[in-house]
Amino acid sequence: IFSNIDFDILSIFSKHAYVASIVFLILPIIIGQVTRGTIRWIPLGPLSIQPSEIVRPFLLIFFAGFLTQKDLTTKRFLKAMLLLFLPVILIFVQPSLGVAVLTIVGFVGILIASSFQKKYILLGISFIALLLPIIWAILEPYQRLRFVTFLQPAADPLGAGYNSIQSMISV
Fold first, then answer.
1. Confidence of residue 19 (pLDDT cuts 50, 70, 90)
2. Most buried residue, 32, 73, 111, 130, by CB count within 10 Å?
3. Alpha-carbon torsion 116, 122, 123, 128, what sign?
C-alpha cells in the first residue's frame, strides 16, 4: 500500500502520524490485555493488534522527513533524539525490546543517509558503549539471555540457542 503512495504525500502527514503513533503506543497501557506478563496487545473482538509493530514504519517516515527537510544542526539532531526517545521508551516498557531496537536501528539508518556528519557516528558509538552497563542492568533476565544466545548460540544448544543453531545448520 505504502509503495503506491508518493513519499511527498506521506511526509506531509508525517507529523500527524508521529502524534498518532504516540497515542497508539499509549493505548496498550490503558486498555491493553496482559499476555504472559506483557501489555503489548490491544484486543479488538476476536483479534488483537500490537501497536508497536504498526507504528514503526510511520515513525521511520516521520524521522526520514524530519532529518532531511532542513540542514541537520546539533540542535535539530538533539530534538530528533528527544523525539525518538519517547516512542522507544513507550515500546520498551511494554516490553518489546526487539521492536525498540529495530526502531533505533531504522533511525540510525536514516541518520546515516541524511546530511549528518559521519564523524559523529564514532562519538555516538562511544556514548552507547558507555551506556551498555546501564542498559544491561535494566534488561530482564530473559532479554539478557536473548543477547547472549544471539552472540553465542552454542552456550545453550538445547535451550535458548536451539533455534539459532538449527537455522545455521539449515543455511
1. very high
2. 111
3. positive
**Those residues with Cβ within 8 angstroms of residue 4's Cβ, 6 or more apart along the chain or in another chain:** none
> 14: exposed, middle or buried (C-beta count within 10 Å: 0-12, 13-18, 19+)?
buried
Q: Is the pLDDT of residue 71 over 80?
A: no
Cell of 112: 546515516
User: How far, in Å, CA of 126 to CA of 171, rounded?
Assistant: 34
Give the sign of the dihedral formed by CA 78, CA 67, CA 9, CA 57. negative
The predicted model scores a pTM of 0.76
Q: Taking all residues of the chain, what is their mean pLDDT, rounded to a whole number?
A: 83
